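Person: Show me a sequence?

Helper:
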Amino acid sequence: MTELMTKENNLSIEELSAQLGAVSTESGPSIPELKINYDGENGPMGAFFLKMGKNGNCQDNVYATENVRLRAFSSHVQWQHWGDDNELINKSILVRNMRDEARDQLGGVRCSLPEYDDFWALSEDERKVHEGKDKYRIVRGLVSYTGKKPDGTEVTIENQPFVYSARRKNYGSFYNDIVSKMPKGVNLWDFENILSKETKINSYKKKFYVMRFSPQFGSPIPLDQLTYDSLSYVSELINNENKRIEDMYKNAISAKDDAEEADRIMDAVDTLSEDMRV
């Protein structure tokens, strides 16, 4: 199976590993979202659910409390900026690690969000400028489980493509539970992960939940055609999103340069006019 090639771009396994940010080293379409159910300790309809469809119709969501199996194909970091009306204002390209330059739609980097220490060194008013901005761990892959819809209908999910967007307290668990423990040379898609939900208490005595992952390194999954086709699909999604954002970045930079040049010309004209009046 190691000779398999993607149908679309004929990338090797090593090239796909690097592109998807899914290899362990020392150095578009509407896809259901994998989420934690925050309603209640265990969730009245299960700890985990897939938010189905563009409209997020609750009747279509499928909930489960246990035995949720996740197989990841990619892991990236992305900065996003959302407005008060839950409208996307800006987002960066998907990068494999914090060292990569995360260029964004508006011609900036990381949605202009300062580094952690720099952010907390700002005054309260200065921090308000960055409200709605955050960094996310974006994971794509397949999920399988048996769960229920809100009306009690039992549904079996098998190898359903998903996207998981984690921020703040949930941002680090995927890396800490999986990536940091992966044996050298192992890919994210070589094994499944069993999900669990950890309940914690914040400084305000309020509960919050963290999705935890138990990697099944001892039960490797063979590289088959399903895996390779899925990798090709995820690769195309990432390429398309990054290309679109890169194009917007270049257009924003170009518009900024044009505006600065126009201001420079107007300053020169104003100066000339003043000189002529003397």
Q: What stands out?
A: The chain has a mean pLDDT of 85. The longest helix spans residues 225-277.
